[in-house]
Amino acid sequence: MPNDGRIPPDRLRSARWFAPDDLRSFGHRSRLMQLGYAEEEFRGRPIIGILNTWSEINSCHGHFRERARDVKRGVQMAGGLPLEMPALSVDESFTKPTSMLYRNMLAMETEEMIRSHPFDGVVLMGGCDKTTPGLVMGAITAGVPFVYLPAGPMLRGNFAGRTLGSGSDAWKYWDERRAGNVTDAEWLGLQGGIARSHGTCMTMGTASTMTAIVDAMGLSLTGSSPIPAVDAEHQRMGAACGRRIVDMVWEALTPDRIVTAASVRNAAIVAMATGCSTNAVVHLIAMARRAGVELTLDDLDALGRDTPLIANVRPSGKDYLMEDFHFAGGLRALMAQIAARLDTSCLTVTGRTLGEELEGAQVHNTDDIRPLSNPVYAEGSLAVLRGNLAPNGAIIKPAACDPRFWVHEGPALVFDSYPAMKAAIDDEDLDVTPDTVLVLRNAGPQGGPGMPEWGMLPIPKALIKQGHRDMLRISDARMSGTSYGACVLHVAPESFVGGPLALLKTGDIVRMDLPNRRLDMVVDEAELEARRAAWKPPEPRFQRGWGWMFSRHVGQADTGCDFDFLTRAHGSAAGEPDI
Ligand code: FES
Ligand code: MG
């Protein structure tokens, strides 16, 4: 047993279940034997839980059944006993009204399943948007050693010889179809070609952003996040995760040694340099807080002003997709480019520092992973706006919006619900001009509910037909990481709980000043006061069940939308279970 200088086998967490000569432990051992394992296979060996978010309806994780076998191979090779366990598969495509409603459910499940089972270490298998923060939030709180195994991006999309990017090209060609420029046959071809293999969206959407963040934080094998899902390298990486988690158990390499203020900052800088999804803000704040690290919107804005965007990956970049990014050197090469800005002394799951992990990393395509002297965009990916419309902040992705909107003033056109907006938007007589500011409210954490990805409001058909493809849009919703445009998101506090967005009326002038980070409605204070006094809270969305609990406990976007009773501020996590 490889325990030289490491914890002795009787200090394994699982020894509490399996070692004592008492009736309970007899029961635990007999049940492992019922599963077909001999004593030699589990006595004194690390028991490794594999939390697998595979599901038949999660197309992004379609390869996870086989991948779990690779992980097991690695665990066994290193002398551990792997036990796979299903975890809630919050998929992005099918879960309504939004997968975000269930991120915290996965976080709770992860925390509780780790705590209540005899796992010495855990491999978390996720990748599709919310699965990454959900698994990681729960596992940070549970506190046992873990490795995050990222699903990896799917292959590039293709139709008729044209490369297609997840999400981004769906929006783009949908606008063209609405303009009458795409035939039925072409539309069917696009439908079949845009997602060609298992794996997560292959633009720098939320999935690739979140796996990059967790990788940069030190929680994945360094640089593993962009390995394509169906590449043999991904199988080898799975086995390596299995081998490594066994050693992490012997080394007692717990997440509190990895997730620190410095590693969270590294993750935020890397997110900015990759052209991250706006969703990164909510999840990064939530994960950091689980580790006791206070990360604020202002911290992120400051890092955003200071960090050049150097990954030329769509949608913020123009030309490349995740597969190209990987072969251009991937996340290790990107981090090596900005190493001077990172704290390279941070420890990673490999047991080595980030700096050691970046040694020898090379860029193979300097157009894809740009040098600092030639960034895609001189500032980072995200900016935080404040003003009388968003006193607690709102988010915009400057690189993804037409620069003519950076300083903009126009009349608001306000919709109170998504269905109302959807019903009106294709009306060719809708009263809009290119200066109009489209507003959707009641789409935040409580209003949506779950803050759906509705924030890239469709351009009204009347403007599409005139050739317009961007306009200023504001909501308390999120938007997909693959979206683009002049979309102000995450307005906090949300309108559903009486945030000032609730007071805005159609025709009011709205002003955005991105260089000065302002977002205001030009309405005088006395008038706002009168509107505030007349405002009535909407009916609660839920009478029972998960939604009822969600509505009572979810926080606002600026603090990460975690449940109040799951944050550290609520008290310390439960200790080890009684056995
Ligand atoms: Fe799963 Fe995009 S839908 S990552
Ligand atoms: Mg997405």
UniProtKB/TrEMBL annotation:
Record keyword Transmembrane helix present: no
InterPro entries reported in the protein's UniProt record: Dihydro-acid_dehy_C, DiOHA_6PGluconate_deHydtase_CS, ILV_EDD_C, ILV_EDD_N, IlvD/EDD_N, Sugar_Degrad_Dehydratases
Pfam families per the UniProt record, alphabetical: ILV_EDD_C (PF24877), ILVD_EDD_N (PF00920)
Domain spans labelled Dihydroxy-acid/6-phosphogluconate dehydratase C-terminal: 369-561
Protein name, UniProt field: Dihydroxyacid dehydratase
UniProt cross-references to Gene3D superfamilies, sorted A to Z: IlvD/EDD C-terminal domain-like
Every Dihydroxy-acid/6-phosphogluconate dehydratase N-terminal domain range: 45-356
